[in-house]
Amino acid sequence: MKSTESAPDGPASFSGEDNEQWELRLYVAGRTTKSVTAFNNLKSLCEEHLQGRYSIEVIDLLEKPQLAAGDQIVAIPTVVRKLPEPLCRLVGDLRDTEKALVGLQLIPRRSVGG
To answer: Boundaries of each KaiB domain copy (predicted)?
Structure first.
C-alpha cells in the first residue's frame, strides 16, 4: 500500500521560477527495496520537473540516526523539501507521481484523492 502523504497546506509556492533551487533530503534506513525505489522515483520526478535546479541529499538513518530528530522524521522513506520554503515532508516511496508532485508542491492540489 502506498503511504504518500503531505504536510502543510500553507501558501502555494509552486515551481514557477525557472532558476529556483530545490534542496531535498531523502531519509532512508539502509539500502532496502523501498529506499531504492523512493530514490529512483524522486530522482525521476526531479529530472522531469526540476532539471538542473535540485539537489538530493540521502541520509541513511542506520548510519546517522541522530539526524532524524532535526527534521522530525517518524517514518521512512521520507522526503523533506528544505528549499524553496515552505518546508514539507512526504512519506513513502513516491510511486504515486501525482500525489508526490502535489506533496512537493510542484503542481497545485486539485483532484487528488477525490
So the answer is: 25-106
- The Cβ of residue 26 has, within 10 Å, a number of other Cβ atoms equal to 22
Predicted pLDDT of residue 8: 36
- Report which residue type is found at 18: D
Residue 55 and residue 22: Cα distance in Å, rounded? 6
The CA-CA-CA angle for residues 67, 73, 74, to 5°, reads: 135
34-45 pLDDT per residue, tens: 999 999 999 999
* pLDDT < 70 regions, the chain: 1-17, 109-114
Residue 101 C-alpha cell reads as 508532485
Alpha-carbon span 112 to 108, nearest angstrom: 10
CATH fold of 22-104 reads Glutaredoxin (3.40.30)
Domain positions in the chain are 22-104
